[in-house]
Amino acid sequence: MKRCVPFYTGVSILAAGVSVLSGCASVKDANIRQQIIASTCNQQNVYTYTEKDIPTPLHQLSLDRELTSRLQYKSLHMANAIGILPDLVRYIHLKKKLDSTNLEQRVSVLELRQRIDNKINVASLEVSAIASEMDCEEERTSQIANYLKGNENDLESKLTVAAIVVGASGAIATGGVIKNETASNSVGIATGITEATLGLLMLFNNRKIDFYHKRNALREVWEGKSVSSNFPTSVWYYLNYADPATGEKSIRHTIIDKWKNFGQIAENDDGSGDGDTHIYFGDGGKYSTEELVNRADMYDQLESHITLMKQDLKALSLELEKL
Question: PROSITE patterns recorded for this chain (predicted)?
Answer without folding.
Answer: PROKAR_LIPOPROTEIN (PS51257)
